[in-house]
Amino acid sequence: MNKEIQELVNKGEMLPLMEEFYTIQGEGFHKGTAAYFIRVGGCDVGCHWCDVKESWNANLHPPTETKKIVESAKKYSDTIVITGGEPLTWDMTTITSLLKAEGMQVHIETSGAYKLTGTWDWICLSPKKLKLPTKEVYENANELKVIVYNNDDFRFAEEQAEKVNKDCILYLQPEWSKRDKVVPEIVDYVMANPKWKVSLQTHKYLNIP
């Protein structure tokens, strides 16, 4: 990547675009909602069960003008979800400003591990043990979505719930490959601790992206 392009990426005027697609939001509070997803490359959080590991290396994904990304997005939906990778690896100020100027509802799915940039209508925080969220992301999260891979994740979920704001909606979501084992455990846990809700990856059951 040449120096000029690198500077544009650093400013958020270009982003390493992995993919963009129009589909149904499958998870969390907005499940069932039509949304346009913008997946940016780059993540060093390194979850071993990540189902989009090809997003980790930002150098594999071409720097794309942010304006062009927005032009594509506005053709499809007024709900935009920016995901990754870890989108907060990059400055989200430009892309969210452009999307908001088009009247879009702008959501982010993030581990919260980096500085919160951008203007968001909805922040889905999915914290990871290897690199915990920043204080600002905890304070601004609209939903907390903890992935349950093993029993220790219930302990981790309670720790994270203590750090978010009082209006944040709390979700436990089974890691897909472990769903047969952990779904019954999550159901029992939510019934015993009803401040939590169950989130499922419904898009995988629907066999859509």
UniProtKB/TrEMBL annotation:
Where, in this chain's numbering, is S-adenosyl-L-methionine bound?
49-51, 85, 126-128
Say which domain of life the source belongs to: Bacteria
Keyword annotations: 4Fe-4S, Iron, Iron-sulfur, Lyase, Magnesium, Metal-binding, Queuosine biosynthesis, S-adenosyl-L-methionine
What SUPFAM superfamilies does the entry give?
Radical SAM enzymes
Pathway membership? Purine metabolism; 7-cyano-7-deazaguanine biosynthesis
Which intervals hold domain Radical SAM core? 30-209
Q: Which InterPro entries match?
A: 7-CO-7-deazaguanine_synth-like (IPR024924), Aldolase_TIM (IPR013785), rSAM (IPR007197), rSAM_sf (IPR058240)
Residues bound to [4Fe-4S] cluster are 43, 47, 50
* Pfam families for this protein: Radical_SAM
> What does the cofactor section's free text say about binding?
Binds 1 [4Fe-4S] cluster. The cluster is coordinated with 3 cysteines and an exchangeable S-adenosyl-L-methionine.
- Stated EC number for the protein is 4.3.99.3
Which residues does substrate bind?
A: 24-26, 39, 83, 209
Reported cofactor(s) = [4Fe-4S] cluster; Mg(2+); S-adenosyl-L-methionine
Reactions the enzyme catalyzes: 6-carboxy-5,6,7,8-tetrahydropterin + H(+) = 7-carboxy-7-carbaguanine + NH4(+)
User: Which PANTHER family does the record cross-reference, listed alphabetically?
Assistant: 7-CARBOXY-7-DEAZAGUANINE SYNTHASE
Q: How does it assemble?
A: Homodimer.
Family as reported in the entry's similarity comment: Belongs to the radical SAM superfamily. 7-carboxy-7-deazaguanine synthase family.
The entry's function note states: Catalyzes the complex heterocyclic radical-mediated conversion of 6-carboxy-5,6,7,8-tetrahydropterin (CPH4) to 7-carboxy-7-deazaguanine (CDG), a step common to the biosynthetic pathways of all 7-deazapurine-containing compounds.
Q: Know the name of this protein? A: 7-carboxy-7-deazaguanine synthase
Organism for this UniProt entry: Postechiella marina
Upper taxonomic lineage: Bacteria, Pseudomonadati, Bacteroidota, Flavobacteriia, Flavobacteriales
